[in-house]
Amino acid sequence: MFKDKVIIVTGSVQGIGKRTAELLAERGAKVVVNSRTADKVEKTVAEFTAKGFDVLGITGDVSDFDFCVDMKNQAVAKFGRVDYLINNAGLAAKGTISDTQANVYEKMYAVNVLGSLFPTMAFLPEIKKTKGGVLFISSMAGIIGLPSYSAYSGTKRSIVSLAESLTNELVDD
Length: 173
Hints:
Largest sheet: 5 strands, parallel
Low-confidence stretches: none
Radius of gyration: 16 Å
Oligomer: single chain
């Protein structure tokens, strides 16, 4: 099912994102791994390459639209197409609304919401060509707001709504 599919996984040098990219590569996918941290991208690419996986590592911030366009261009230049995008990049922070600084909310909304929206906007034309798909990684916190996790819950609910809206927009595609 994933053999020779080109799959972008944002935030994929640790945790769920890395394991997802690894499982897809084990099943024959060509994967693009991404993080804001260059040494983590290089380490993951080296690890995946040593296992014989076809991988491209791209360092950058998915909350920057221009970077997302560049990432799409690099992926298409290397692999010729894009089949799937998995929006995994995200941050979490604990703290009550009254105890959390405004800049924490700004950073979380940038990474968690724009970091899913901007890659989707950049990659969607390519994904439509291949009749592929977009997957958003969210959380139960996006359905039920968690105490002391208002920023995280709010961003994850935004992702759920974004995915629902996109599904409705693309129903004929």
